[in-house]
Request: fold
Amino acid sequence: MGTVTVKWIESTFMNGIDSNGRPLNIGWSRQRQPEWTGVKPSDLLLLAAASCSTYDVVDILTKQREPLDDLEVICTGEQLPEPPYTFTCIHLHYKVKGAVNPNKLTRAIQLSEEKYCSVINTLKPTVRITSSSEIVE
Reply:
């Protein structure tokens, strides 16, 4: 079980502490500057989904000894226009570099999204999750 802490600093600016004690700035401060100085809370959800699945896909392809040189996951989310701005759809696009077998890549993504990624599987009952992938040189 993991425990995180969020400490309010001022205005809408907070400091998050992950379960390993690492800090993360969240939000922004109206007193200091009128722009984001930390990560938007809604972006944290997208980052969590993308990083969780990235971890899985890299782990699966490495165990299969696939020649993975690089992996970038671009995660986009659609939200309702009115509060609470609920996410309705999240799309993950996997960009892979290396001579990876396309079928193994597809299977690794499927395993992550259907079996291993706790973030995606937590969201799935209420958010439509889609994905695509490409192997680039």
About this structure: The two ends are 40 Å apart (CA to CA). Residues 41-63 form the longest helix (23 residues).
